[in-house]
Amino acid sequence: MTEATPQQDAVANADRAVPVETYHGADGQAVRPCTPAAVTHRHLRMLDLRPGANVLEIGTGSGYSAALMDHIVGPQGQVTTVDIDSKLTERAEKLYAEHGYSVRAVTADGLLGYPAQAPYDRILVGTTPPAIPDAWLQQLKPDGSLISGVRIADLPGAYAIAHVTVDEHHLPQQVVVHHGGYTPMVAPRPAPSVSRAVDPGRPEFELILLGADQTRTAAALLTALRDRPHTIQGLVVGDDYFHFKNWLIAAGPQGLLEAVHDEGVGIGVGMRTADGSAHAAIATDELIIADAPDSPALERLQSLIGQWLDEGALRTHELGAKLSCDDGTWRASVSRL
């Protein structure tokens, strides 16, 4: 049996000491959305918190994660949690006082970080910003690390978790992207780099094609999926779907798209053939859906699935990842190694 590391023990000990029901509510409905405790534990292990650390949390939520971190960093450490919603920070502050935690709860705009207590050893962001503000990196100590929700493409479902370590100049030193995601910090706006088509009779049935000014093509692809659906048992099953989806985003094939279909939400490819006809195929976590059994889009999608499998069915964290600076913010992207 493999021995537990001290860090794993620290999170496990904190889990035993901090009852999740106190913060999430006995029925799990106290704060919505509420990050599952198992996800919080996983990200705290990734952060590698140590006694005495100075930690910033952006997105107070239920208050549970900051209580766990306070337990881990101990009396010589400090945890500050920031949220723009005063109801959340006031609720958390009362819980911390009641249960003996010294977390500092602040109502403020998390996009600015919290310079008053900087520099930080670790920053945990329990939400997905439009892009990572440079202020967060500047408020980290050299070799400090940040975990944040990120977008890795302009497709609606392209959410992931980035783990970023900075160098002595507060620039990204190491970036690893994991599958998963947090609720957006602000309502996402339609990206100008995609084209969207919606079924007038069923607004929930839509298709988003990566590429600007292709609305007519997107509409034709949506019609093809809607009117000529052909489904087969998927080659991508369960949790593997998310890893395949992120690999496909990294591969960036022409005609990359996402679609919401009666059979599920999926990612895939679309194309027009020489005769002008539209073809589309998507993979969901259970099925592959295409416009026809002999669809060239289906053939292309199956080829891509085969390529992913041949490369070892790469997990999201095995992809290449980087942050690129854009007007004072950092955008995450993934690539095939």
UniProtKB/TrEMBL annotation:
For this chain, one GO molecular function annotation is: methyltransferase activity
Keyword annotations: Cytoplasm, Methyltransferase, S-adenosyl-L-methionine, Transferase
Q: What is its EC number?
A: 2.1.1.77
> Sorted alphabetically, which CDD domains does this protein's record hold?
AdoMet_MTases
Compartments in which it is found: Cytoplasm
Sorted alphabetically, the Gene Ontology BP terms of this entry are: methylation
Q: Which Pfam families match?
A: PCMT
Q: What is its main location?
A: cytoplasm
Output the PANTHER family linked to this UniProt entry: PROTEIN-L-ISOASPARTATE O-METHYLTRANSFERASE (PTHR11579), PROTEIN-L-ISOASPARTATE(D-ASPARTATE) O-METHYLTRANSFERASE (PTHR11579:SF0)
| Family note | Belongs to the methyltransferase superfamily. L-isoaspartyl/D-aspartyl protein methyltransferase family.
The name of this protein is Protein-L-isoaspartate O-methyltransferase
Organism of derivation: Streptomyces cavernicola
